[in-house]
TrEMBL record, chain A:
<dbReference type="Pfam" id="PF00005">
    <property type="entry name" value="ABC_tran"/>
</dbReference>
<dbReference type="GO" id="GO:0140359">
    <property type="term" value="F:ABC-type transporter activity"/>
</dbReference>
<dbReference type="InterPro" id="IPR015855">
    <property type="entry name" value="ABC_transpr_MalK-like"/>
</dbReference>
<dbReference type="InterPro" id="IPR027417">
    <property type="entry name" value="P-loop_NTPase"/>
</dbReference>
<dbReference type="InterPro" id="IPR040582">
    <property type="entry name" value="OB_MalK-like"/>
</dbReference>
<dbReference type="GO" id="GO:0055052">
    <property type="term" value="C:ATP-binding cassette (ABC) transporter complex, substrate-binding subunit-containing"/>
</dbReference>
<dbReference type="InterPro" id="IPR012340">
    <property type="entry name" value="NA-bd_OB-fold"/>
</dbReference>
<keyword id="KW-0547">Nucleotide-binding</keyword>
<feature type="domain" description="ABC transporter">
    <location>
        <begin position="4"/>
        <end position="236"/>
    </location>
</feature>
Automatic annotation (TrEMBL), chain B:
<feature type="transmembrane region" description="Helical">
    <location>
        <begin position="223"/>
        <end position="240"/>
    </location>
</feature>
<keyword id="KW-1133">Transmembrane helix</keyword>
<keyword id="KW-0812">Transmembrane</keyword>
<keyword id="KW-0472">Membrane</keyword>
<dbReference type="InterPro" id="IPR000515">
    <property type="entry name" value="MetI-like"/>
</dbReference>
<keyword id="KW-0813">Transport</keyword>
<dbReference type="InterPro" id="IPR035906">
    <property type="entry name" value="MetI-like_sf"/>
</dbReference>
<dbReference type="Pfam" id="PF00528">
    <property type="entry name" value="BPD_transp_1"/>
</dbReference>
<feature type="domain" description="ABC transmembrane type-1">
    <location>
        <begin position="66"/>
        <end position="290"/>
    </location>
</feature>
Length: 361, 301
């Protein structure tokens, strides 16, 4: 039970100009499930490892429960970590794996036994306690790794892409299990993933990182509804938002034959963008319209039928170049490949960003 | 490919098998044959049945050599592996995990090279060098340092010390190789395991005994067999360094020396072959037993 704070925490690898993590400021509440997400190399894992003590902090500090742990070794931080490859000790049984940390802390045998059994029951590992990791399936190993963290009863759980080695079905299943477990135990959790679906479904809040810089940290809903910049807008949501830079007019953004209306303050803010503005509209906030309703004609390249609905991928000639678009539609109006359809963004669901710095306006 | 398969395989097999048959198997067979004869290097070999082995049973030198081997067999692997494991640990993970990577102690790259030096020297050279190191007068490194050569320790001439002095050289010479062997083993342990151990609160000592050694067990087992076989040898050092080649008074006698002297000093080819046969079975039994006794679940990473 603890809060975690990154205060301008910076990590610069030897011989590199650009910090791997650049002045990260992040406050994580007691019992919160925070997800760090971003493309590979964005510094999310490094941030987690800085918190774990596996990575040096070059500048700034890290607090756990108001205690400065910046330069403490991993074992003095009262944290437990689940690794991507689980990092189970191959020569120990499941029981020994889970008990190892407690043994080193000189916990009494009875207490160790109680905690391990309890965790095993929680994770449905009872019958595997005497097995070695190699005799377990991927999902079971993952649960042992979780168990090893749980028995410690730490102040903070750290998870570094714990699901990426599981197959798709198991991943979805385990995803909800971890979320449920965290809610039940109420232990502050920092979770790293590159998968935005994982981030959106599991996190109380999600911190999006790029190039070592925190882009936005907010609830999944806020990230989806009001992305603070073009990167977050494009990263969150699947399929990704349609993002185009178009000319700015006095009424708003002029997109193909349409004018997407913007508020006066927005237009004022966008005016320093060299007469351009970047607009974004989600595939699910885009309609297919009839040929004479002023929509942008696109040629359909691919239709993904998802059962419940369908994603239509297509391209259109715009400003002399070929631009790609995605539209989500219900299955009844599903076009076929090669067909020309007309798309129209829903005006009140259009996001506007500054054309040069990419910030939301 | 299917048609060409057998000629291909046979083509590669034939030459090695022929060479192996001529120079290894045939030699073994001849030795076994000779051990049942009283061959003296010339003339016809007379079949004498098990006489050579019976004579061996009553040969005090043979038993002396076996006792010496027993000492080497216990201490050579034990001490060499212990030292090599500690060194390899220090070189690879003993420096802690500052900066995200498990590292060796300060200067580990330098030590890695230095530890391997003895392995590069020919054994005969090592023997000559240590013959000087052990020298009883003031010019010997140890005695010279101890008290300038007065009241020297007679490393090679004192029955109490001779075998241990040889053992020390064997260890000195072998450690470098096993440091490299164990380093390779430690390199194959995933970084995350060390990190998990660090988070679990393992100190360097617990890390060494509870994680590193169990994970290296297979390599240690192999090392034990190699060193055990080396303990049945030790011929080169004994031949070059010791007083009376195997002395004083048999204190450093080994089976290899006994064979050599029986052939080249006494022309007892048949008898020497019998010792060779015994040595062959001793080594074989040792290797099989070691692998058997130390067998554990193989650890997969």
């Amino acid at each position: 039970m603890a809060t975690v704070s990154y205060n301008k925490a910076t990590r610069i690898y030897a011989g590199q100009e650009r910090p791997a993590v650049n002045e990260l400021d992040l406050q994580i509440g007691d019992g919160e499930f925070l997800v760090l997400v971003g493309p590979s190399g964005c510094g999310k894992s490094t941030s987690l490892r800085m918190l774990a003590g596996l990575e040096d902090v070059d500048r700034g500090q890290i607090l756990i429960d108001q205690r400065d742990v910046t330069h403490l070794p991993p074992k003095s931080r009262d944290i437990a970590m689940v690794f991507q490859n689980y990092a189970l000790y191959p020569h120990m049984t499941v029981y020994e794996n889970m008990a190892f940390a407690l043994k080193l802390r000189k916990t009494s045998k009875a207490e160790i036994d109680r905690r391990v059994k309890e965790a095993a029951q929680l994770l449905q590992l009872d019958e595997y306690l005497s097995r070695k990791p190699k005799a377990l399936s991927g999902g079971q190993r993952q649960r042992v790794a979780m168990g090893r963290a749980i028995v410690r009863e730490p102040q903070v759980f750290l998870m570094d892409e714990p699901l990426s080695n599981l197959d798709a079905k198991l991943r979805v299943q385990t995803r909800s299990q971890i979320a449920t477990l965290q809610a039940k135990l109420g232990i502050t959790t920092v979770y790293v993933t590159h998968d935005q679906v994982e981030a959106m479904t599991m996190g109380h809040r999600v911190a999006v990182m790029l190039d070592g810089v925190l882009q936005q940290c907010d609830t999944p809903r806020a990230l989806y509804d009001t992305p603070q910049n073009v990167f977050v807008a494009g990263f969150i949501g699947s399929p990704a938002m349609n993002i185009k830079t178009v000319p700015l007019s006095e009424q708003g953004a002029s997109f193909a034959q349409m004018i997407l209306p913007m508020q006066r303050e927005q237009i004022a803010a966008a005016s320093s963008g060299g007469g351009k503005v970047t607009i974004g509209f989600r595939p699910e906030a885009t309609d297919l319209v009839g040929p004479h309703e002023g929509g942008l004609p696109i040629v359909v390249d691919l239709v993904e039928d998802l059962g419940s609905d369908a994603n239509v991928y297509g391209h259109a000639a715009l400003d002399g170049g070929s631009e790609r678009f995605v539209v989500r539609t219900d299955r009844r109006g599903m076009p076929s490949m090669g067909e020309t359809v007309f798309i129209k963004p829903q005006p009140n669901h259009v996001h506007a960003f500054h054309a040069t710095n990419g910030n939301r306006i | 490919m299917r048609h060409g398969k057998y000629p291909f395989i046979i083509g590669f097999l034939a030459v090695p098998v022929a060479l192996y048959g001529t120079f290894v198997v045939a030699a073994y067979v001849q030795t076994f044959q000779l051990s049942f004869t009283s061959f003296r290097g010339f003339g016809a070999a007379t079949y004498v049945g098990l006489d050579n082995f019976v004579r061996l049973w009553d040969d005090s030198q043979f038993w002396q050599a076996l006792r010496n081997h027993a000492v080497l067999l216990i201490f050579l692997p034990l001490i060499t592996i212990a030292i090599a494991l500690v060194f390899a640990f220090l070189l690879n993970v003993g420096g802690g995990a500052k900066g995200g990577m498990q590292r060796g102690v300060w200067g580990s790259k330098f030590y890695r090279v230095v530890f391997f030096f003895p392995q590069l020297l020919a054994l005969a050279l090592v023997a000559v060098i240590f013959g000087r190191v052990y020298s009883p007068d003031g010019s010997g490194l140890i005695n010279g340092l101890l008290n300038g050569g007065d009241d020297p320790i007679l490393f090679l001439a004192d029955q109490r010390w001779a075998l241990w002095s040889i053992l020390a050289v064997l260890i000195w010479q072998a450690v470098g190789f096993y440091v490299v062997l164990f380093s390779a083993g430690m390199g194959s342990v995933p970084q995350e395991i060390y990190e998990a151990a660090a988070l679990d609160g393992a100190t360097r000592v617990t890390l060494f005994f509870r994680v590193t050694i169990p994970l290296l067990w297979n390599t240690v087992q192999v090392a034990w067999v190699y060193l055990g076989i080396a303990a049945f040898d030790a011929f080169a050092l004994v031949n070059i360094m010791t007083v009376d080649r195997g002395g004083p008074d048999g204190a450093t006698m080994v089976l290899g020396m006994l064979i050599y002297r029986n052939i080249f000093d006494y022309s007892q080819y048949g008898y020497a072959s019998a010792i060779g046969v015994v040595l062959f079975f001793l080594t074989l039994t040792f290797a099989a037993l070691t692998l058997r006794v130390t067998r554990r679940d193989t650890v997969e990473m």
